[in-house]
Fold this sequence. Notes:
The chain is of the alpha/beta class.
Amino acid sequence: MFExxxxxxxKLTFKxxxxxxxxxxxxxxxxxxxxxxxxxxxxxxxxxxTAQHREMLDQVLRLFNIKPDYDLDLMRPGQSPFEITAQVLxxxxxxxxxERPDIVxxxxxxxxxxxxxxxxxxFKIPIGHVxxxxxxYDKFQPFPEEMNxxxxxxxxxxxxxxxxxxxxxxxxxxxxxxxxxxxxxxxxDSLLSVSNRPYTFNISPLDRLDFERRRVILVTAHRRENWxxxxxxxxxxxxxxxxxxxxxxxxxxxxxxxAVRQIVQAELEGLARVHLIEPLDYEPFVHLMKRAxxxxxxSGGIQExxxxxxxxxLVLRNVTERxxxxxxxxxxxxxxxxxxxxxxxxxxxxxxxxxAAMAQASNPYGDGHAAERIVTILEGWLQGHIPNLSIxxxx
Length: 395
């Protein structure tokens, strides 16, 4: 005799397909994945990785003990957005046909996000977008991330905005207010969990740096718009700073992309007190940020993370989709002009009041409970009602 589920049981059992492909996506979705696992009796999650980044993604999966159900393993040498988009669409087609989830969840602004959202749209599957509403309104800065996130915003049904400013962007684009939820950024959830763990560096040169007596400046630069002359200008600024300040050490985390690596190595390799290191796993990188004096970066994620660690961030870009940090005083746009980078970094190194104003400013990107809000909202929406939740409220 067949056994049929009751109507109540059907309402309480839903399938959420979570798709991601890069290290930043994995970091920011990890707390959501863990929260969903806590409600596995009625929220079944299926994890799909595209592996748009392979090695960098895998170390985050290990750190957070995440085991994908499907791995498209798409990373190829020299891949472009053309290949990634096409391969993600083709790779997801049979998975979506088989699983038929109630909603697809994506995060951020990668090519994986755009392609996954388009694939879900083709199957008329609702889309939830974590970290929605970030904008520069310059379609080539950052490239291709700005258009990835804007196009995903057009396709999405639920928009999890990290800040009120992101919500305002979505409202301006005529997204219905009842589909937008200000949750905070899930990266803060991950950051706080990892930074609270005890950690000792066991790799050179970090195991030999005296973080107590030397001022360590952490540098990262990898954005496409900074390839070429802008990156050379950044390297020239580092050379100047090393000459101007005898007590600083510069740690430059060099992206694996040859367009970045060739320039940085040519300009900075062998320079005294400049340490070129391979990209770190997430846990040691968090603890490197925690022990650094200040950070120069073009990374979006670091703009969100470092303020929670009390670290001033000078943004090596002309525009940022994270203006909340500028307004709060945790970030300062310095671009890629050598003179301007030297001037602004030097100010922080010589003016204790200027440094304290940035280091002590409140982080506008979250309180460490974003994932709880997102999962509660998802659960309510799937069941036909949406809790009245926003950052600062209870979950």
